[in-house]
Write a structure and sequence with these properties.
Structural class: alpha/beta
Shape: flat
CATH superfamily of the largest domain: P-loop containing nucleotide triphosphate hydrolases
CATH architecture of the largest domain: 3-Layer(aba) Sandwich
Bound molecules: guanosine-5'-diphosphate
CATH topology of the largest domain: Rossmann fold
Order of helices and strands: EEHEEEEHEHHHHHHEHEEHHEHEHEHHHH
Number of domains: 3
Radius of gyration: 29 Å
Distance between the termini: 16 Å
Helix content: 40-55%
Strand content: 15-25%
CATH class of the largest domain: Alpha Beta
Length: about 450
């Protein structure tokens, strides 16, 4: 935290401008060393929070590196709460690298990924869940994912967690009074009241938790595998879906590109279509291998779309694929219904009795809307409204909420059994601590490092 840190804050590549960012007590001093204002400032220093036009100049040989705008923002009203400098260079990798290297030579250290945001957290400007939202915001692939991350960054989740902690603290305070003055005749907090309070808090946590599955899918996207034997219409379906809602994607975190074919923006939900190349190929032996390979795709998928040519009787391969699908979440598309439907719903129910079945003719766009509706219904699961943006999206938060709820349930059970208050107190305090981990108030260095290691450089 003592060091002054620097990094290129914009994406690596060509652009109109690119930004080098510096944070720490030496920021201004470093800027003064390498920046020459175009206008003589008459010995005046650069004005706080005002853009100044000039050149980055190598102090050693006075060589001009780039024509830039710079801004100095003094602490504490900055992103990191430290002195911050931003240098707006031309968006060329050459200029950015040279400018950064001058900054580093002049006394800054290269920032680690996420270190600017980490400082914002460690300096108390944002809490841990807000810091986590920053990276979600940057990675968001759809408006909905962005909106949900923005809400979290604005502190919606933090506020709810803080309210829960306040409720628990109030209860803890009452219990403490009870334990401390148990001999005296002050107003008693009885077990019954404790149970009531804990139930209310537990309900609030459950309400938050009920949004977690949807939240995760909005944040991470839904992985969908389209499977079916050759010629049933898989490519046609993919094209129909993409025509309506292709998402613009540059990079997909946590996945290798070769396993993802396309990304859809399904009314705000990022949907990753997983490559099931294996199952496209026909010939016997290859088909076997294909089915083996598609198992991998199955395992990665949150949902399988199983396409069947409904205009023909079911074939051996269809049965084989159904067997592979097993108990996984599946939507069966009975395609080519324009040619007459030979396969019945009952036949499908016999092999996959949990499947959602849709009558379709994808080349005529029939069944596409129903398919999208069914996918969204799976995402929202009836618990969460599509307008809602206050969601638990992060698995770390979900785990901690579950732990807190379990501690509360244990405390409640003990209160119901009229166990001693000092024992009940331990579980309540534990719940309070778990909730604190979400916002980073009771958290270890390891967890903090883990959170920020997911960030990109320069953020
Ligand atoms: P894939 O091998 O599973 O990817 O199947 P394709 O999407 O390549 O489709 C195979 C053939 O079936 C193509 O000639 C499509 O035009 C045709 N096809 C796809 N969907 C339909 C449909 O709903 N009705 C009819 N009649 N033909 C379709």
């Amino acid at each position: 935290m003592e060091d002054t840190i620097a990094a290129i804050a914009t994406a690596y590549g060509e652009g109109g401008i690119g930004i080098v960012r510096i944070s720490g007590s030496k920021s201004k001093q470093i800027l003064d060393k390498i920046f020459k204002p175009a206008k003589n400032l008459n010995g005046m220093s650069i004005v706080n929070r005002q853009l100044t036009y000039g050149h980055i100049v190598s102090p050693e040989d006075n060589k001009i590196i780039d024509e830039v705008l710079v801004v100095f923002m003094n602490a504490p009203s900055t992103y990191t709460r430290e002195d911050v400098v931003e240098i707006y260079c031309h968006g060329s990798v050459v200029s950015l690298n040279k400018t950064l290297s001058l900054v580093l030579d002049s006394g800054a250290r290269l920032a680690e990924p996420g270190e600017f945001t980490k400082r914002a957290f460690l300096n108390g400007r944002i809490d841990l869940s807000q810091a986590e939202a920053v990276i979600d915001l940057i990675r968001a692939k759809t408006e909905k994912s962005f909106e949900v991350a923005l809400d979290q960054m604005e502190g919606h989740l933090s506020r709810k967690v803080k309210e829960l902690r306040d409720d628990l603290m109030e209860l803890l305070a009452k219990i403490a009074v009870n334990i401390d003055y148990s001999e005296e005749d002050i107003e008693e907090l009885n077990h019954e009241e404790t149970v009531t309070s804990l139930s209310l808090i537990g309900d609030k946590i459950n309400k938050l938790l009920s949004t977690a599955d949807t939240g995760r899918l909005i944040r991470e996207g839904l992985r969908v595998a389209i499977v079916g034997r050759p010629n049933v219409g898989k490519s046609s379906l993919m094209n129909a879906l993409l025509r309506e809602s292709r998402a613009i994607v540059t990079d997909i975190p946590g996945t290798t590109r070769d396993t993802i074919e396309e990304v859809l923006n399904l009314r705000g939900i990022p949907v990753y279509l997983i490559d099931t190349a294996g199952i496209h190929s026909a010939e016997d032996e290859i088909e076997r291998i294909g089915i083996e390979r598609s198992k991998l795709a199955f395992n990665r998928a949150d949902l399988i779309i199983f396409m069947i040519d409904g205009s023909e009787p079911l074939r051996e391969e269809d049965y084989l694929i159904a067997e592979q699908i097993g108990k996984r979440k599946v939507i069966v598309l009975l395609n080519k219904s324009d040619l007459g439907q030979k396969v019945t719903e009952e036949q499908i129910k016999e092999i996959l009795n949990h499947a959602i079945i849709i009558d379709a003719a994808v080349i005529h766009e029939k069944g596409i809307k129903e398919l999208e509706d069914s996918i969204l219904e799976l995402v929202y699961g009836g618990q969460v409204s599509q307008e809602q943006s206050d969601l638990v999206t992060n698995i770390r938060h979900k785990d901690l909420l579950e732990k807190a709820r379990n501690s509360i349930n244990e405390a409640k059970q003990m209160a119901l059994n009229s166990e001693p208050m000092d024992l009940i107190e331990i579980d309540i305090r534990q719940a309070w601590e778990y909730l604190g981990e979400i916002i980073g108030e009771t958290v270890t260095g390891d967890i903090i490092d883990q959170v920020f290691s997911r960030f990109c450089l320069g953020k």
